[in-house]
Design a protein that fits this description.
about 0% strand; mainly alpha; 5 helices
Amino acid sequence: MIERTNIEEGLALCLRNELSRSTNLEARVQELEEEVRILKSDQILHQSLGGNFSLHKVVLAVKQHYVERALLTTKNNRKHATRLLGLNYYQSLDRIINRLGLQDVYMTTFQRRKLARAKDTTTTV
């Protein structure tokens, strides 16, 4: 009976260590993602003027940065992302996503199902 208790305690300790490592890894990944976002924003905001500079491209890059960040923060929940971005309607966010060409990346569940159904009907015909 003592051996079984020691084995269970050892397993519990291993599980706790593994969970701690995975939690630390997730936290580190989030830190690195934030550092990349900061570096990208520095590149966007500190470009030299003239030459190939385009204000339109900078504005699009800023929009994309914040849309991606809001969708990441809300786990792709468009309704909540819309609120975070200060937009009044989720359709406004959808329009921005489409203009940025991100519609394939940030499809709603409904859109994915519709696309899958369309593919199913074309393959069965």
